[in-house]
Amino acid sequence: MSEQLYDYCLLIENYPTEINGVEIGSEDSRWKKLAKLFQKERAELKDCPYCKTKLRMVQREKKGSLYYKFEKFSAKLWLCANCGYWQTYFYFFEPGEQDGGNIFEVTKPNLQLFSEDFPEECRGDIAKAIRRNPSKWHNIDPTNFERFAGELFKANFDDCEVFHVGRPADGGVDLYFIESGGKKWVIQVKRRAASGYSEGVGVIRNLMGAMVDNDVLNGIFVSTCDHFTLAAKEYARRSHVKGYAINLLDRGKLNRMLDPLISPDDMKTYLKTSIAMDMIREKYCHNSFIEFQRFVNVHRTVSKGAELFDYR
Ligand SMILES: [Zn+2]
Question: Cα(61) to centroid of ligand 1, in Å?
């Protein structure tokens, strides 16, 4: 599928839609043309268009009360388990009417809806965006990345508290992290622009300084680096011997921490609500649809991520 067409397809999802800034309605012949092309291309799509992972059909609904008026109705949901991309497929047929119908829907992260502040449902969008385009680890705004790192801790640890300091050079701490059992950690966060960056021992010594300054025994260094140098790892290892705890999180570990934000479980509830959404979309305005979609996206499962901190 060409990239250009794909962009058009993304527009089709939301009603009313537009092409090159010109609004078109669903009765418009251009819209119908695009929709047709979209269905044709999408029907052949077996792999995730973002990360090429093989899509899995995770849910199937047959004729139900919502669509009683159609003789035949089925809906399917396909999901990319890696980046959370999904697509649905609807088929309905009513004898005597001219058209059966196939409708596919796609989403892209609605980051633009949440650029200023960071409501909960935004975390998943960012996680998906990063899985779809890993270069985002390196070009996300550094301050936003500090906050997102805080969200990753919240998503991976039940009942923890995370505070974003949000001021530069404040005792060298970017985040305070308190586990449910009360254990306190100071966290330093570095967003590195180069994907091959290796984090040296100097910054880990600096973290130790921040721990001492803040009277906290435990510290975590979070970095979008490719890896930590041997000297950095050795320094962290020795900190444990001396009664401190320094844990190092590189991009690989951070990537695993995205998992709870890309849960297939929220998608499984999606298909039924999507059918309901179609009705809502017809009845109410576009904004209600967006609100409803956000509501659906909020339902996420949280899993424990403690093993990520197992220091070896
Ligand atoms: Zn994918």
Answer: 23
Domains and CATH numbers, the chain: 2-107+264-297 (no CATH), 138-258 (3.40.1350.10)
Assess whether the previous peptide bond of 16 is cis (omega < 30° from 0): yes
| pLDDT tens digit sequence for 181-215 | 999 999 999 999 999 999 999 999 999 999 999 99
| This prediction's pTM | 0.64
Find the 16 Cα to ligand 1 centroid distance in Å: 27
Say how many Å lie between the CA of residue 55 and the centre of ligand 1.
Answer: 8
Q: Going by DSSP bridges, is the β-strand pair 218-223/184-190 parallel, antiparallel, or unpaired?
A: parallel
Strand order through the sheet with 56-62: 56-62, 72-79, 86-93, 101-106
Q: Do residues 206 and 188 touch, judged by C-beta distance below 8 A?
A: yes
Sheet of strand 175-178, all strands in order from the earlier edge strand to the far edge: 161-164, 175-178, 184-190, 218-223, 245-249
Tokens representing residue 6 in the block: 């794909």
Instruction: Please write the tens of the pLDDT for every residue from 273-284.
Output: 555 555 444 444
